[in-house]
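Hey, sorry for the delay on this. The queue was backed up all week. Below are the sequences that define the complex (chains, strands and the ligand SMILES where applicable).
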Amino acid sequence: MKQFGIASSASLLVVLLSAWPSRTIADRASQARDPEAEFEQIVQLLAVSEGQVVADVGAGGGSWAFRLAGRVGARGRVYATEVKGPQVRGMRQVVRARGLENVEVIFGSQQDMGLPANCCDGLLLRLVYHAFDKPALMRDSMRRAMQPGGLVLVVDFRPSPDQLTRDMNDAGFERVRFIEGWQGRQGIFAALFRKGASLSREGRL
Ligand SMILES: C[S@@+](CC[C@H](N)C(=O)[O-])C[C@H]1O[C@@H](n2cnc3c(N)ncnc32)[C@H](O)[C@@H]1O
C-alpha cells in the first residue's frame, strides 16, 4: 500500500513536471509584447477582410476574436471556440456586454472544434495546437470547417515545424509561409497553411 502510494506520487510528479514547461511557455507567450503589431500581422497573413468568416480556435479570454470581429465587420462572423467552461462563460459575457453580434462563442471538445461545415475563410490557432489531446481529430475537424483555399495560421512552439507540416499535409493543407521567431520571440513559430482546392475524403490532394 505504502509502495503504491510512493509509486503513484512519483508518477504524479513526472506528469506535473512534463506539463509544467509547456504551460509556462504558452502562458508567457500568450501575453503579446505588442498586441497591435501582432494583430496586424495575423490579419495580414490570414488575409482577413470585411465580410469574411473566421474562427479563433482556443480563444482563451477572446481578445483576438474580439479584435477580429472589428475587422470582418457586421457582414462577417467570428467563431471563438474553447474547451473550458470559465473561458466560454467569460467570452459570452463580453459578447453580451459589448453587443458583439457578429461573434459566436462555441463550446468545443478535444475531438471536434464544433464549427459548421465549410464555414470558414480563415482559422487562427494561437498557442493552442500544442495543447490538443487528439491532434489528428482536430485536423479532421479543421478540414471540415474550412472552405477550399481557406487559410490556417498556427502560432506555437510544439510540435516541431517539420512534424506539424507533415501532419497538416496529410490532412490536406499545404504550407504557404513559415516565420521563425514570431514577434521577436525565440522558439515560437508561425506557420500558414492553405486548404487544397480538391480533396479526397481522407483529405489528400
Ligand atoms: C495558451 S491559451 C491561448 C489562448 C489564446 N489563443 C491566446 O493566444 O491568447 C490555450 C487555450 O486553448 C484552449 N484549448 C485547448 N485545447 C483546445 C481545443 N481542442 N479546442 C479549443 N480550445 C482548446 C485552452 O483551454 C486555452 O484556453
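The CA atoms of residues 60 and 87 lie 6 Å apart.

I'll add it to the shared folder too.

S.
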